[in-house]
Amino acid sequence: MVLIFMGTVLFLLTAWGGFEYYTSQSSFCGGSCHTMTEQYEAWKSNYHYKSNNPEGMQAECVDCHFLPGEKHSMKAKYEGLRHLAAYLYDRDAPLPIRPVIKDGACLQSGCHDREKLAPVEIQFTDRVRFKHEVHFSDKALDGHQITCDTCHFKTTEKKHFEVPEDICFLCHLKLDKPTLDKAEMANGDIKKITFVNKPAIDFNQGVSRCDICHTIPTKSLQNQLQAGDPASTKKPITHQTIQESGVACESCHFEMVSGEGEINTGNVVSNGCLTCHNRSQTLLATAGDRELMHDKHVPNKADCFDCHSVIEHKNRTDHLDFVRNDCQLCHVDQHKYQKLLLSGAPVNEDISGDPHLMYEVNTNCMGCHLKKTLSKGHDVRTASGDTCAACHTEQHRKMISDWNELLTNEVADVEEVEKEARDLFAELKDRLDNERLTQAEQMLAEGNDLLNIVRVGNGVHNKKYAVNILDGAFGNFEDTIELLEETRSSDDLAKTTQSTVAEGEEMRRRIRYE
User: Fold this and answer.
1) Running DSSP on this structure, what letter comes out for residue 195?
2) Which residues sit opposite 345 in a β-bridge?
3) Handedness of CA 106, 110, 112, 118 (dihedral sign)
4) pTM of the prediction?
5) CA distance linking residue 83 with residue 62, whole number of Å
6) Cβ(93)–Cβ(83) under 8 Å?
7) What is the tens place of the pLDDT at every residue in 167-212?
8) pLDDT band at 514 (very low <50, low <70, confident <90, very high)
9) Residue 324 half-sphere exposure, CB side, CA atoms within 13 Å?
10) Is the dihedral of CA 457, 459, 464, 467 positive or negative?
């Protein structure tokens, strides 16, 4: 009985050992399990396969998918049985989960040595170099630790896993949009231009700095000058000299980034939160918590692109068209006065108006500006009486011209009073005390601002409100004239009094002399 028992135990141990050895082979995972065929074939073309690396080393499936102490454990067998059960239940079912590759598997003894790997500069692409060092930091991603499979993961059927360029762009090029106040040049005086409605990345500083990934070229940018040319006494301009001078990279390399890496929280798109989660009310209430989202998703393996949209980074073929077609680059806050008139927005505490009727029915600029006219060599769309008549009646054809004539006369009247006020100010400003000088300058400026709303914004956008604003400007200039006239009267009175006193003194001297 003892021999039978020992033989049975020995047989079972041998069988278990053989079974354990066989099921630990990569050929079992891919060769026997058809759901893993794609991954298996991709692994054989990867550098983790012995014939694809100079050392002839091979990392089996279990070496990467389990930590060193787990790959021969019951846990590993349970995981395998779970997948086997799912496969036997429905051979055509997709893989139920996405695998998590723990850092301990990648950095285990005999594989990738963290200390040796960190400082090595890797040529990622022809133009991009890379170091693991900074990515091993505990605060590599907005204060959060990233894992190996944050960047290394399967993206195509032919590669078992890789680092797609898009994952780099998502971290390095998803930043605050700098405003004209934020994005200052090195000297602090000149400010960079930034598009209003497009992502603007600061390539001169922070994690978006060009020289983090790119080697700054030393070749001269001037065809007539070359670095080290003994025949030239001038220093050529290169990317390096431009960088040293603090010139913004965006001066030449603008529109290099497309997309903002925004997060889709809804379930109407394929990569929304509700694709993976339920309990939408609880979930979406915390979706804006950036720290919580990264703490939960980065280590527990949701790919970045499960939440974020892709950011593109590439050189545009035409460096002028994107500027030429974006009016807001040069015309900052253009048509603000037209909008103010149409909406009836208050211009100050005393002056406000009713919105234009066209504004209240959501008619936008292109509802009226349909006629093409030539202005400074460019086609510009303008409004005309024909547009009015097309929607209203034939009697409306003259409406714009009548309003224009009325407002032109009103503006001319205000400009006449403005000229009188400015002429009088020029005459008397040297005689004003500081308080009255400041008051007069402020009143002239306020009057001019009100006049410009109608003069520049074209009062026909809201005729009634425009007349109200012109009345305010007229009042400002008249008040300025009144203030200045008071100064002149006071000065004249002082001079008259002074002259009378002097004449009295002279008369008294004569009387005493006689």
Assistant:
1) -
2) none
3) positive
4) 0.56
5) 14
6) no
7) 888 888 875 544 433 334 344 444 444 444 444 567 777 788 888 8
8) very low
9) 5
10) positive
